[in-house]
Amino acid sequence: MRHNVMSESIDTARRRFFDDGAAPRGLVSDTILASWRRCLEQGLVASARPSLMPVERRALGEMQERHEALRRLCRPELEALYASANQAGSIVVLTAPDGFILDALGDPDFLDKAARVSLRPGVPWSEQSTGTNAIGTALVERRSVEVRGAEHYYAPHRVLSCSASPIFDPQGRVVGVLDLSGHASVHHLHALGMVQLAVEQIEHRLFECAFDGADIVRIQPDPALIGTAREGMLVFEGHRLAAANRHALRLLGLDWSELGKRRYDELFASALPVPGSVASMRCQTGDMVHARRDPQRSRIVVPGTVRSPREPSPPKQAIRPLRAPATVFDAQLDAAIERQVRLLDADITVLLQGETGTGKEVVARELHRRSSRADAPFVAVNCASLPEALIESELFGHLPGAFTGARREGAPGLLREAHGGVLFLDELGDMPLSLQSRLLRVLQEREVTPLGGGRAHAIDVRVIAATHRQLQQSVDRGEFRADLYFRVAQSVLHLPPLREHPDVADTVRRLWAALGAEQVPMRLAPDLVRELAARRWPGNVRELVGVLRSLMALGTVGATLTVDDLPDGWRRPAADASASSAFTAGPVAGNLHDLEAQAIDQVLAACRGNMAAAARKLGISRSTLYRRLEARQRGE
Ligand SMILES: Nc1ncnc2c1ncn2[C@@H]1O[C@H](COP(=O)(O)OP(=O)(O)OP(=O)(O)O)[C@@H](O)[C@H]1O
């Protein structure tokens, strides 16, 4: 009965939408309506019969092989769902991140029916190709979606009722979709819940594999659920949140775009438990959670804790290297780092200059690691991303109740947290002029006075600064204080852009090895190395590492990867092999400035204006992307 009522209202909604061009609000959900609109805008004709041919068997085999790691990871949940799908006369489907169906298993009768409407391995079920459907629409919406009967865009798919959920990796990238589909005439009450539970399990395992050996912080309001797939999982790099699962994001009131941005003390008001123990912690939302850290694996630096020099254990064979690679430096850079370490140890401030993604922070951490202060804190301050209103209190600390919104117990400030260790002033060139004089005074006098008064505290820090700007020119333009410049630029190390590395192919091979290619094992064919070395890499090493990680995540264990294995959107026609940008599908022209602008515009358009996604794709930070856009507006 319920089904009939529903199908009648959808039929009415379809008539209003497709025949009258009206918005049938209240008759279908906003999600379905938005999807119908997208399909219509793309020119898909709802009354037409879609032509959805499966790829050839060999191509399907290759596609399955390419996604073998994902298929292996999902196997336990696929098998568990298979048993219930079989009983309920439905099927379970696994797709690649683009909606291409890799596997479908379940009730043989329904498999047959589904295959007749192309719901079968080898067929793409993205929204662009197949219209409104649970898999494709879940990919567009980046969340679980149910599409029943005539809610499907194309008439032949009315026989289906489908529930799909995207599978996210710890950086918020979609790695696949899990879907449960059955007869539209049967109301599958728990289908979406079952899919979501299965995806939770898969993501939990994916997180463990990706960060095997790292210091994972596990949080949950209910301590009994710590260690289960319902726990929130977080990984910090320095003070910044580097990875999280969806439970952690929900508990902290965040979304994926905030990864890499949020600092530890913006999320928690109390210190972490010591490794191996459970403690209750207050989140900045005011909620209490229980937190556990894995024993003896401290890699994060949070206020008051000291980084352990121990490196994480090598990754297990199975899913692997979604984590950061070990660092690699060519002989020239290695020697330069050695020299700078000696200077740093002698209390000379080191300034690192280089374009975005050239490895300024990586080198700063390496300087710290090789310095006599390796066992003391490394405290990174991003002078560009601290909110201007808070920058003073974040740096210099404040007394209890020093200003509206100040922490009740006061805060020591980042400069004091670095006491005894190394202070890394990242993006120093973007620090507001008004604060530069105060920072200069601290660096000269080596003491800080918290906001709100109180006594001055002596600080003993070694200082490394970094900027993507030509700081000398900023001084000439009056944007940066000359006296602060001379204070921080006592020794300057220029990090060259990747395109100017003496041997880019060698850098490609070293990074590949550092990503763990030998343990996986997987090789790069010479043509692929040549292709990668020929690109211009506006996002520098960060961008190259991103492509290598994608290659490794998508490749097959034991394979030799060629140009054809480049992720979608990175391949380009042979004639275009000398084009400047890694993302351009077609030829581009102009100087470096124009090329960068074109790359940004294309990626922003592809990401529908989503700044976080575009920054990820470009291989630069979100603040860098904003900066570039602002610079363009100013006509620079
Ligand atoms: N020498 C290196 N070895 C291995 N990976 C590197 C190296 N240099 C850079 N990378 C990779 O590039 C990423 C970006 O590096 P890093 O954050 O140090 O760049 P940056 O110059 O500080 O960029 P930005 O100015 O945008 O902050 C790193 O997370 C790492 O994955």
Automatic annotation (TrEMBL):
PROSITE patterns (UniProt xref): SIGMA54_INTERACT_1 (PS00675), SIGMA54_INTERACT_4 (PS50045)
Listed InterPro entries: AAA+_ATPase, AAA_lid_NorR, GAF, GAF-like_dom_sf, Homeodomain-like_sf, HTH_Fis, P-loop_NTPase, Sigma_54_int
Highest taxon of the lineage: Bacteria
Coiled coil: none
SUPFAM superfamilies attached to this UniProt entry: GAF domain-like (SSF55781), Homeodomain-like (SSF46689), P-loop containing nucleoside triphosphate hydrolases (SSF52540)
GO molecular function: ATP binding; sequence-specific DNA binding
Keyword Transcription regulation: yes
UniProt-listed GO biological process terms: regulation of DNA-templated transcription
A UniProt-annotated Pfam family: HTH_8
Keywords recorded for this protein, A-Z: ATP-binding, DNA-binding, Nucleotide-binding, Transcription, Transcription regulation
Residues annotated as domain Sigma-54 factor interaction: 333-553
UniProt keyword annotation of DNA-binding present: yes
Protein name in the entry: Sigma-54 factor interaction domain-containing protein
